[in-house]
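Appendix B. Raw example, untouched.
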Amino acid sequence: MEIVVLFTIEEAETRIQNRINEIINNNDQPNYEKLPGLIEALKIILECNKAEN
């Protein structure tokens, strides 16, 4: 079973930024390995948002 969730670019940007901040601010070391992927996803979203405007 697949679950698909669609977000606007703004929603995705906010959610990813919040997750990055949560990991860093809470010193959530088990999830540090997720940071590079989250940061890359945020870069892609910001590039899309920039291209859209």
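End of appendix B.
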